[in-house]
Amino acid sequence: MRWEGGRRGGNIEDRRGMGGVGIAGGGIGALVLAAIGYFVFGIDPQTTQQITSQLGTGVGQQEGQAGTPEDRAGLFVDVIGANIDDVWRAKLQGYRPPTVVLYEQGTSTGCGYGQSAMGPFYCPADQRVYLDLSFWQEMETRLGASGADFARAYVIAHEYGHHIQTLTGASQQVREAQQRAAGQAEANRYSVALELQADCYAGVWAANAATVSNGQVALSAGDLEEGLKTASAIGDDTLQRRSGGRVSPDSFTHGSSADRMAWLRRGYENGDPQSCDTFQSI
Question: Could you tell me which residue, 102 or 282, shows the higher pLDDT?
Fold first, then answer.
């Protein structure tokens, strides 16, 4: 994937080096398989508040350095984020960029206390995307996801997809529908539709990345396949098998590997957010 030399966004809040509460017993790796099925690419604000309580941490407000990080990993997030913003400015009237917070181990958020084991997540309460960059390695070594740049960019673009859903009101509509749901299985189907739509939105970004950047940010041959590999690795059915559990579709919250791959591909092939209506089948 081509990205170096692309426009920087300047919408990064860097909290790395500020410390945070780790997870006892081996850090992120100890809980990643248990937590990832619930948190990767999405987050329930009530759950983070519960974690804060369980940890017994008195977490105050944190503010990091705003601007453009100079390390390569930080620059990657900044350039990709700026490009995603440019795509959505062209696709969504009134688009407002989120802030991207880089942190280590744990950090305070508008949705409670965020932990690395949750994976990358978006908090609608403060409209921020939270990234602990050590998670890339966890995805590759423990989950079999791709380490390619586009696979990592897909993760970022998915979280921006949740920001789009907040701006359009889709997230609020899902919460209201879940409150009316007849049971947990029906409520989960709305969660799955929301997550698959974010996958599709990531594909829409990828299809338009080169156009808005004059080719400075662009996919290369084989990049889409690397993204699809990651989508497959983090499907609910794959994660349930990996953790030794039984595959239970009614408990899915993010979608099967096949569905995540299909919607990422659909967004990429159409390049239009109107093609991302994942709620029709509910």
Answer: 102
